[in-house]
Amino acid sequence: MTTPALGSRALAYEWIKFRSVRSTVWTTVATAVLPVLGAVFVATTGSLQSDDTVLGGSLTLSVVAQMLAAVVGALVVTGEYSSGTIRTTFAAVPGRTTVLVAKAALVAGVMYVLALASCTAAYLVGDALLPDGRYAQGEPLPALFGIAASFAVAAVLGLAVGTLVRHSAGAVTTVIGLLLLPSLFGPLFGDAERWIAGLSPTAALEKLTQTSDAAAGTVGSLGPWPSLLLVAACTTAIALGALALLRRRDA
């Protein structure tokens, strides 16, 4: 079987498994629903800060949704280790690189499309419900595409961590720590703060949403797009390390 055909078969297998596991499906649904609920909550309670943007306020819960996207990425692989079906997966598709690439392509693609639709809907809902002219609008385009990409990056990060840890609770705890800790500890590194604090997909997301909470002291002073590129590069490095370990150890 040719490599493209094998890759297509692996991707099809992963899609079947993805939509067959309830924990993965429900976490994915929650990822999609949270941004819209956040937009409704902020608009109906009048809790948006005066210096915030419509885009930032509407996507208040996008950070939590992004964490769930990372959890989905982790569960895609740790669930198979917990159930023992990872051995069946490797028997069906012997190339472990192909398996991990298929998983990464699946979670990244699903989360990108889902986040783009959900966050766009959240912005439109917030724009419709918030008073006209009271808040700065923000620039939804091209920011929404970057926001969706940050969800995809978070999902791949979760997958990489899950591959390294192989245990659901440990992987979820680790990936959430990776999302939050750079912003918390970045100010401790002096001049390197703009790089350290910007290492998290969460930091890139907050900058892209143009929220007033995205202060340089908490998410780094890099711009939103450079921050997203930095995060994507770091995630790629972690994923390559996970792949190298996956190819060396037993299932």
Report on the structure:
- The chain is an all-alpha fold and 251 residues long.
- The protein is 77% helix and 0% strand.
- The model has no long low-confidence stretch (mean pLDDT 88).
Summarize, please.
This protein is 77% helix and 0% strand. By secondary structure, it is an all-alpha fold.
**Uncertain spans:** none
Helix content: over 70%
Q: What count of helical segments does DSSP give?
A: 12
Write down the secondary-structure element order: HHHHHHHHHHHH
Supply the helix-strand structural class: mainly alpha
Q: Regarding quaternary structure, how should these chains be classified?
A: single chain
Beta-strand residue percentage: under 5%
Gap between N and C termini, in Å?
A: 23 Å
Rg, alpha carbons: 19 Å
Note the overall shape: globular
Mean pLDDT: 88
Mind sketching the topology for me?
Elements: H1 3-18, H2 22-45, H3 54-58, H4 62-83, H5 86-92, H6 96-129, H7 140-165, H8 168-185, H9 193-196, H10 201-208, H11 216-219, H12 224-248
Helix pairs in contact: 1-6, 2-4, 2-6, 4-6, 4-7, 4-8, 4-10, 6-7, 7-8, 7-10, 7-12, 10-12
